[in-house]
């Protein structure tokens, strides 16, 4: 008999697929953070400039968030002990949802355990097999999974191609069932902004439900970080707004905003809400404190955009392909450096890490074959000195490897 689990034959097909990834050069090991998520931090024992974090506004270690977490633990303990619909809805959960609803200028809000479950749980619960989903081809995986779980008919339009989306709507106009248009506010791999205003026009013209996933727009776009809906002045035109508490907000979770009836319906039917224990009080309190900071410290968002403009201009001046040719042009703090080949991209990422820059390589299946890239993300807390050092390292390693001529 086999002596260890790794010798058992039942999962050998997984080992074979891992071996294939190693041969292709796209296999990776998790980098382990040894200290605080910050512009300069320690991964695997090595001090590096961090260009890979979603901590856009530097809130993960903000003193006010730390204090809020500690006070919440003292007052409420470390856990809620149940799902929201049984015994796990605490007063602090309601306070957070009410704060987000006011911030987003909507009637109501519900908080989920993650942005992924917010998307997947919402799409899968509000539609059925007679309905249609009109989805951008580069929408996030959580939207795709939610669409599949809904059993609705999925129609994919070319990236940001509003005319193509309208062609689809015309084709299915006479079909029974509801129609849902869905787009990312900011696309996570290319950093471009979705055409929210134009898709709202289509939704109104064809009587469709309008949904926006603002995970990478929350805390980044719009007034005080209110997102793409605010950025485009589309308040009252988007039926479902999804956001995250795990990126610019600095903590963990996702949320859905909309009408009171939408949120009450999700209370009754969204499976991640119904079957997952609610947020720990400490996390909930940090999120409340973070929304207070968005209002009281708008200079963080200004610094984020100052750093973003500088970094993009310098990368472009060095000759890096940062989108706009074979991929969409970045318009946000997410700036991809296009390499193309997956193996070469991963080698570039490893060489950068060895030289003191944490910049993650992303390859198939996260992005299409031939469009592998280093994805860089700016934060408000990077100093100009840190950015210049990272830029020098990027250029030096890229020229050494022949990525730059």
From TrEMBL:
InterPro entries given in the database record = Aminotrans_II_pyridoxalP_BS, Aminotransferase_I/II_large, AON_synthase_class-II, AONS_Archaea/Firmicutes, AONS_Archaea/Proteobacteria, PyrdxlP-dep_Trfase, PyrdxlP-dep_Trfase_major, PyrdxlP-dep_Trfase_small
Q: Which cofactor does it need?
A: pyridoxal 5'-phosphate
**Any Pfam family hit:** Aminotran_1_2
* Residues annotated as domain Aminotransferase class I/classII large: 47-394
Q: Which CDD domains match?
A: KBL_like
Enzyme Commission designation: 2.3.1.47
Name the pathway: Cofactor biosynthesis; biotin biosynthesis
Q: What are the N6-(pyridoxal phosphate)lysine sites (modified residues) in this protein?
A: 247
Keyword Transferase among record annotations? yes
User: Which superkingdom, per the lineage?
Assistant: Bacteria
Keywords carried by this UniProt record: Acyltransferase, Biotin biosynthesis, Ligase, Pyridoxal phosphate, Transferase
Top EC class per UniProt?
transferase
Q: Name the Gene Ontology biological process terms.
A: biotin biosynthetic process
Q: Where are the transmembrane segments?
A: none
Q: Which family does it belong to?
A: Belongs to the class-II pyridoxal-phosphate-dependent aminotransferase family. BioF subfamily.
Q: What does this protein do?
A: Catalyzes the decarboxylative condensation of pimeloyl-[acyl-carrier protein] and L-alanine to produce 8-amino-7-oxononanoate (AON), [acyl-carrier protein], and carbon dioxide.
Instruction: Please name the NCBIfam families in this protein's record.
Output: bioF (TIGR00858), gly_Cac_T_rel (TIGR01825), PRK06939.1 (NF005394)
Protein name per the record: 8-amino-7-ketopelargonate synthase
């Amino acid at each position: 008999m086999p002596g260890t689990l790794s010798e058992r034959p039942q999962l050998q097909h997984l080992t074979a697929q891992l071996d294939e990834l190693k041969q292709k050069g796209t296999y990776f090991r998790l980098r382990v953070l040894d200290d605080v998520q910050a512009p300069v931090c320690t991964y695997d024992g090595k001090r590096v400039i961090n260009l890979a974090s979603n901590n856009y506004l530097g809130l993960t270690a903000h003193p006010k968030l730390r204090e809020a977490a500690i006070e919440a633990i003292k007052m409420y303990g470390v856990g809620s002990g149940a799902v929201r619909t049984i015994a796990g809805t605490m007063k602090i959960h309601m306070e957070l949802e009410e704060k987000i609803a006011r911030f987003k200028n909507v009637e109501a809000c519900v908080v989920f355990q993650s942005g992924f479950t917010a998307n997947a749980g919402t799409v899968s619960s509000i539609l059925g097999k007679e309905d249609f989903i009109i989805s951008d081809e580069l929408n996030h995986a959580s939207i795709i999974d939610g669409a599949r779980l809904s059993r609705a008919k999925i129609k994919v339009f070319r990236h940001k191609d509003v005319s193509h989306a309208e062609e689809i709507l015309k084709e299915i106009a006479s079909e029974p069932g509801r129609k849902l248009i869905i787009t990312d506010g900011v696309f996570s791999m290319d950093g471009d902004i979705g055409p929210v205003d134009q898709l709202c026009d289509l939704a109104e013209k064809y009587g469709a439900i309008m949904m926006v996933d603002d995970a990478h727009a929350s805390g980044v776009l719009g007034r005080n970080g209110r997102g793409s809906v605010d950025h485009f002045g589309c308040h009252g035109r988007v039926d479902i707004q999804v956001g995250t508490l795990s990126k610019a907000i600095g903590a963990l979770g996702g949320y859905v905003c909309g009408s009171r009836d939408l949120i009450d319906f999700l209370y009754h039917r969204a499976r991640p809400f119904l079957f997952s224990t609610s947020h720990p009080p400490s996390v909930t309190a940090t999120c409340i404190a973070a929304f207070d900071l968005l209002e009281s410290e708008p200079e963080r968002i200004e610094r984020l955009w100052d750093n973003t403009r500088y970094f993009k201009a310098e990368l472009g001046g060095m000759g890096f392909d940062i989108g706009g040719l074979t991929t969409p042009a970045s318009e946000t703090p997410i700036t991809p450096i296009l390499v193309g080949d997956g193996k070469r991209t991963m080698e570039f990422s490893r060489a950068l890490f060895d030289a003191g820059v944490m910049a993650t390589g992303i390859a198939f299946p996260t992005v299409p074959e031939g469009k592998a890239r280093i994805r860089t993300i700016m934060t408000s807390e990077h100093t100009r000195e840190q950015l210049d050092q990272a830029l020098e390292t990027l250029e030096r390693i890229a020229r050494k490897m022949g990525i730059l001529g």
